[in-house]
Amino acid sequence: MYSKSGKFLIISVFLCFCSLLHAQRNDYRAEIGLLGGVAYYMGDANLTPFKNITPDYGALFRYRFDTRLAARLEYSRTSVKGGADLTAFDNPLNMVDLCGEFNFFDLEKNKYKRFSKIFSPYIFLGVGMMNYKYEATQQKFGVSIPFGVGIKVKMGGRFNFNAQFSNRLLLKDNMEGIAVYNDQYGLNGSNFLNNDLLSALTVGITFDIWKKECDCLKF
């Protein structure tokens, strides 16, 4: 016959074991990874989507609050192209974004949970900062509003895949980096807020980090 302390020990081990089984399905708090794709801009020198596309690449860190909500810190680099002759430009951009993400499904490997999936569409919105060249010699910073949609997939092991279509609305009208495009010819109005818009289609691979602690009973 087991003593009370023995029963308590068995129950504690059982609860810890159940917790570990759950942790195997969703046992990491965060992800780090790389992303790449293409980008284009809409502004005074371009009114056509997917025109003058340029490479887009970067890195990200994602912290998962739960299976639905996450926060993402992302750095990416690209450039914007447009114009002709003396007004042609190829302006490099460095961007840092902090976004909140919402998954439409419970994103975890848990066959016992009714609404859990190994994939989920998601939406995101946040605030960002852009660094860009202006008139050849000046470096400027501008605040942007990043937003978009994507899909996440949990792969084997600790790897994850995501694809997303993102937009960054610059709260200034000079992403081109050339003053001649700053409404000198009355060209403003290329998008709904009369500001430059950078769009990107990217894919990324992330790796789970920051293992959760076991939440079993302490004794």
Offer a quick outline of the entry.
The chain has 219 residues and is mainly beta. The protein has one helix spanning 4-26, and strands spanning 28-42, 54-64, 69-82, 89-103, 106-107, 116-117, 119-134, 138-154, 159-170, 197-211. The protein has one domain: Porin (Beta Barrel), CATH 2.40.160.20.
Please describe what this structure looks like.
There is one protein chain. With 219 residues, the chain is mostly beta strands. The chain has one domain (29-210): Beta Barrel (Porin), CATH 2.40.160.20. Helix content is 11%, strand content 54%. It is built from one helix and ten strands, in the order H-E-E-E-E-E-E-E-E-E-E. An eight-stranded antiparallel β-barrel has the order 1-2-3-4-7-8-9-10. It is elongated, with a radius of gyration of 23 Å. The model is unreliable at 12-24 and 187-191 (pLDDT under 50).
What descriptors fit this protein?
219 residues, mainly beta, Porin, two-stranded parallel sheet, 10 strands, 11% helix
Describe the secondary structure blueprint for this structure.
Blueprint: H1 4-26, E1 28-42, E2 54-64, E3 69-82, E4 89-103, E5 106-107, E6 116-117, E7 119-134, E8 138-154, E9 159-170, E10 197-211
